Structure formats: C-alpha cells, structure tokens
Fold:
Amino acid sequence: MSNVALSDELREKVQGIVADVLEADPAELSDETSFVDDLDADSLLVIEIFSRFERDLGIKIPQNDITELDNLPDTYELVSKYVTETVAA
Structure:
C-alpha cells in the first residue's frame, strides 16, 4: 500500500474512478498495476481519469501533472497534492 496520507474512503473512491474509466475490476488494480502496460490506457483515458477526479472529488489538477499517472501509488500521491481536508474527510 502507498505511504501517501489519504483516507481509506478516498483511496477507494480514487481506485473506483480509475477502474470505471479503464473498465477494469477494482480488485484487479494493485499498487503494481500499470495503467498503460497492463490495462492499455491511452492519453485520452488518462485525461478522462483527471476529469473524473475534478468532477467527482472536487479537485483541480494542473495539466502539467497529467503525465504523472500510471499506477495507483502515483495516483494517490497526485490526488493528495490537490485534495482538501474537506474532500478527504
């Protein structure tokens, strides 16, 4: 499990969004799963994941951070940089 400080509930939401966009079973996603190599994510799907984070979690992620997304630990770290305490609670 990633060492990034996110609540279990927020981790589940993030994992659920990723799984939904990539049409994967959430149980398939582990910290070692590569979105690109294992789940065939392309740049459009990565942008959709960001869009869902913004819509569903109420966070704004700068476009220059879009390239930092290929697995759950990277995703948790990215979300933790922009999530507010209100969303995390």
Notes: Residues 16 and 77 are 16 Å apart (CA to CA).
